[in-house]
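Reviewer comment 2.1 asked that we show a complete input and output for one of the modelled complexes. We chose the 2-deoxy-2-amino glucitol-6-phosphate case, as it is the one discussed in the main text.
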Amino acid sequence: MCGIVGYTGNKPAQEIVIDSLKKLEYRGYDSSGIALHEGEIVFSKKEGPIANLESVLDSSNSKMAIAHTRWATHGVPSDVNSHPHLSNDGKIAVVHNGTIDNYLDIKSSLENEGFNFLSESDTEVIPNLLSKYYEGDLVKAVSKILDEIEGIYTIAAIHVDNPEQIVSVRNETPLVIGLGNEENYVASDIYAILKYTQQIIYPDDHQIVSVSPKDVKVLDQNLNEVKFEVETVEKYTEVAEKGGFEHFMLKEIFEQPKALQDSQTELFVNSPLDNLDLNWKIGSISVVACGTSYHAGLVGKYVIEQLTAIPVSVHYASEFRYAAPVQGVGGLMSSRPLVILISQSGETADTLAAARAAKQQGCHTVAICNVPGSRITREVDGVIITKSGQEIGVAATKTFLTQMQALYALAMHLAFQSGSIDHVMLKNWENELRGIPSKITQLLNSSESIKELVPHISKAKSTFFIGRNINYPLALEGALKLKEISYIHAEGYPAGELKHGPLALLSSDTPVIAIAIQDHTYSKLISNIEEISARSAPVITVAQKGDKQALRVSDHGFELPEVDPVLSPFLVAVFVQLLSYYVAHDLGKSIDKPRNLAKSVTVE
Ligand code: AGP
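Response of the prediction step:
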């Protein structure tokens, strides 16, 4: 989705913001642009990759710049719809993430006042509104427009009158200010500026920030100065290289043993769970997330319920935010409900809104997140940080595994606390989890054989993934992975549900990927495979090592390394990731940046 960077300081700004903008490419975008101060406001914007923008840039001495990557919401991807947008007089330039919901009303009243609009973008109302209210002070003008614009936004604006000042404001979307030595940065994503500084300010909604090389001021909407804290954040290892892998996604799949191990150190050595204050009798848990994070939540439900007997409901954040399901679960709230928000990015608009809704209902909120300092980590009562490292591929892989692991650890913690498991059992579980990375390494070492399955899937128009019990969420995740990177239609189903409708779709050109794990549902799943085969649909089964029966009833198969069924989702996940990757690769798709998708979904 859209990204913003800004620089004001003592160095040529163009180079710095273009370099920073490239750090945001992983988020997904369709065009980019830059505005500079060269005595007048100079700007360039281009549809397509940042390289297109670079190809039209002249050298520049400007010491201040704002730049943007756009992910189209209002108006098709095009040069004219790209940011920055300028006021009619060319004196103000604005970049914007988010959406202005009432832009049509504002646009028509500005048109009545004589303003012209060039683009279809909602953003173009902002520079013109600023221009309308500008009386020599851009901060004041920004404070005035906040009463008029509705929506979610991060805005960075510059005015020709001040060659050093960037003014920025946010509402529900991320904004960070990075502090340097006589130079300061503005960004919508901390990754954009971590190369340059680890001193970060996180402004709140509606706080207006005036950033100059030697000075940062944070003001409330009435223009009173507000004190701010400067946080020192960990320097991330920059992930610029694919390390010999063809795609970031493949690299990230192969990084999973390390991601799990690093997260284990965080979970079992630094013990963040002890600081979550979960020491009351928890009556119910709601897990709230989107996409792959939602699937991790579904796996977590099985483990938490199995270990603690606390009922867990799992919700899509986009639904939860508009419902009041927490109080509805058990009627009156007898004890404070726990709401677990899962978001690798910590920025997903729906998950953030859900966190706020949960807090408003008096719930205790805990986030599982991969980005320290991200918005969600700042809004909830407690945080479990996963240590996957930065994930660049749009398809979530290593963050999924570390989210699941965090939920297993949480289940163990709650079970131990409530006396359902003793210290010995707790250590056994911990040891089992510690054994998973090496099993994944074994699987990765045999990944070549997954390629042999590709021809059975890559020509299909439609596919099904089926699983039961704790591997039903993995069927959903397999289907999501395949559809998002290969564009083959895929549905994930609980295996027992096929006969209630989807069987009608099966034929010899509808492959079914079956997850056959030897838990208490195994014999039922084998029967489901036989029902599918009887309809001539080819079955590709992923089974545990040595499971001859599952492989016998299937057309093709893959054996996982030996694993306890309750831990099998970690290995099944790696299998479905690799299978999807190899199919998408065979089809020549844009694996790291699938069409229409973005890494962080910061709009509703
Ligand atoms: C999965 O491959 C997708 N990238 C997507 O479903 C993602 O998991 C979802 O948008 C949630 O993102 P989050 O974890 O950053 O909140």
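The radius of gyration is 25 Å. We note this here for comparison with the apo prediction described in Section 3.2.
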